[in-house]
């Protein structure tokens, strides 16, 4: 729960503006970007993900540092498991 | 240098470690508290104590949300799980936390519908998928997690999901720090501030520590280099007779925090007059509850939560460890009655817990692979 996972935004869905398609180590899931409402995002941006929400925008370098840190802590597998576990927006969020 | 060579800049780390060694006053003892459990874990994991001079003592703070939750609140949450047609959802960290009558996992084995989720939005999704059931989310966490629960609540309201509620146990870090500063058996010289909480609340809320208590606070990131730099900055402030809030984690943390996250929290939550923390007792205005506008989603309003208070087993010294008065290995139960397979306290369960981190990386000396 306290993991901060770096991911890169791949695309946005016009129908669901609060969700961004994010790539984390090859795994793609939708993540809620509502907490970055003040900080407009574009595809290619890197973000720090926490329990399904983007918590801050970061640079590519910071993202790689964070990834390296997760690896060094032995938490990279956990991070991927968490990303895979986000089911809320799998194949389009329910309305 | 033990575990730090997997990092990009072992020389830098060695340089900072030497600089700390050069800077400390050999006649002085330094007690520095890392507030956040993520820091505690990183310190043990990377063996950072081994690169610090002996007279710098690192004291673990209360920044592990699972650890500070008193047993009574765990029992209250589990009481909700025992209602008919109810699904209780929680983060994985909660599953093995002992309540009076067992852990959530044990209760699940006995038939309760308890499900692990990775995001509060998944709890909401389960509610949408199970309209005949009630789905309650057992919310825990400091300000890093609270905004996510807030946005989930806003979303639940927008979508009109009626079978969803939140059992709110979000706590705020600043009153916890104040309680430690006010505690008579506590002497802390400076604080390594919690980096990810500060992403949300910014650095300003820590200013009272410097202003009212005269102690330095350095908000820090989670790499070994970050933590060592923060310690060096604290030592420098102490020698200069200063007390300021510094932001070592500028690459992520803005001084003002994340305003959108603060707005989300302000709309969904209000402060509780007081809340019990394990080990620290009742602390005023230290936790969040749902704002009246969200009463329909408030598990404590919807259900008769027993509101039990449970005292910890006598021999367990979780409270002292949480306050930083005692190091994990000095608890009478450490490693014997209390171990990760049979945890007595939550500090032995959570990956952020000081006892679990100490057990894993120091006591058992788990091999560290790069
Ligand atoms: S060893 Fe167990 S009982 Fe003792 S402080 Fe740690 S978690 Fe609590």
Automatic annotation (TrEMBL), chain A:
The Gene Ontology biological process terms listed for this entry are: protein maturation
Q: What is this protein called?
A: Hydrogenase assembly protein HupF
For this chain, the family text in UniProt reads:
Belongs to the HupF/HypC family.
- The source organism is Vulcanimicrobium alpinum
What PANTHER family does UniProt report for this protein, alphabetically? HYDROGENASE MATURATION FACTOR HYBG
Q: What is the lineage of its organism?
A: Bacteria, Bacillati, Vulcanimicrobiota, Vulcanimicrobiia, Vulcanimicrobiales
Q: Which Pfam families match?
A: HupF_HypC
Q: Which domain of life is it from?
A: Bacteria
- GO function terms (MF aspect): carbon dioxide binding; iron ion binding
From TrEMBL, chain B:
- Keywords from the UniProt entry: Iron, Metal-binding
Q: Which domain of life is it from?
A: Bacteria
GO MF annotation, one: iron ion binding
Signal peptide residue numbers? none
Q: In the UniProt record, does the keyword Metal-binding occur?
A: yes
What the entry lists under InterPro entries is as follows:
Hyd_form_HypD, HypD_1, HypD_2_sf
GO BP of this protein: protein maturation
Which family is this sequence assigned to? Answer: Belongs to the HypD family.
Q: Which NCBIfam families match?
A: hypD (TIGR00075)
PANTHER family linked to this entry? HYDROGENASE MATURATION FACTOR HYPD, HYDROGENASE PROTEIN ASSEMBLY PROTEIN HYPD
The protein in question is named Hydrogenase formation protein HypD
Q: Which organism is it from?
A: Vulcanimicrobium alpinum
């Amino acid at each position: 729960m306290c993991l901060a996972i770096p991911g890169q935004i791949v695309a946005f869905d016009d129908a669901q503006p609060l969700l961004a398609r994010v790539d984390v180590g090859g795994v793609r899931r939708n993540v809620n970007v509502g907490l970055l409402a003040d900080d407009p995002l574009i595809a290619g941006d890197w973000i720090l993900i926490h329990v399904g929400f983007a918590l801050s925008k970061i640079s590519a370098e910071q993202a790689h540092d964070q990834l390296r840190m997760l690896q060094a802590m032995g938490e990279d597998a956990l991070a991927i498991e968490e990303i895979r576990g986000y089911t809320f927006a799998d194949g389009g969020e329910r309305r | 240098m033990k575990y730090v060579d997997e990092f990009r800049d072992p020389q830098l780390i060695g340089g900072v470690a030497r600089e700390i060694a050069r800077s400390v006053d050999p006649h002085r003892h330094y007690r520095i508290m890392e507030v956040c459990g993520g820091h505690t874990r990183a310190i043990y994991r990377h063996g950072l104590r081994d690169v610090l001079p002996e007279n710098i003592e690192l004291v673990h703070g209360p920044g592990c949300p699972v650890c500070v939750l008193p047993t009574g609140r765990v029992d209250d949450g589990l009481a909700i799980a025992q209602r008919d047609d109810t699904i209780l959802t929680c983060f994985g960290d909660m599953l093995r936390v002992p309540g009076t009558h067992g852990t959530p996992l044990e209760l699940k084995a006995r038939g309760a519908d308890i499900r692990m989720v990775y995001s509060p939005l998944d709890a909401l999704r389960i509610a949408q998928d199970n309209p005949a059931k009630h789905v309650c989310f057992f919310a825990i966490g400091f300000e890093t997690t609270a905004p996510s629960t807030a946005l989930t609540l806003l979303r639940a309201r927008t979508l009109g999901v009626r079978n969803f509620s939140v059992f709110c146990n979000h706590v705020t870090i600043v009153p916890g720090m104040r309680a430690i500063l006010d505690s008579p058996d506590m002497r802390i010289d400076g604080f390594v501030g919690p980096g990810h909480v500060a992403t949300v609340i910014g650095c300003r809320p820590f200013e009272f520590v410097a202003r009212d208590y005269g102690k330095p606070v350095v908000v820090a990131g989670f790499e070994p280099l970050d933590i060592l730099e923060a310690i060096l900055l604290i030592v420098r402030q102490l020698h200069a007779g200063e007390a300021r809030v510094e932001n070592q984690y500028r690459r992520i943390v803005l001084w003002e925090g994340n305003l959108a996250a603060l707005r989300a929290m302000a709309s969904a939550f209000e402060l509780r007059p007081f809340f019990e923390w394990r080990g620290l007792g009742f602390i005023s205005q230290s936790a969040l509850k749902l704002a009246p506008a969200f009463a329909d989603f408030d598990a404590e309003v919807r259900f008769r939560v027993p509101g039990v208070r449970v005292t910890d087993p006598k021999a367990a010294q979780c409270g002292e460890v949480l306050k930083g008065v005692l190091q994990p290995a000095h608890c009478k139960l450490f490693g014997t009655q209390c171990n990760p397979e049979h945890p007595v306290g939550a500090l032995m369960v959570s990956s952020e817990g000081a006892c679990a981190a100490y057990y894993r990386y120091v006591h058992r000396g788990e091999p560290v692979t790069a």
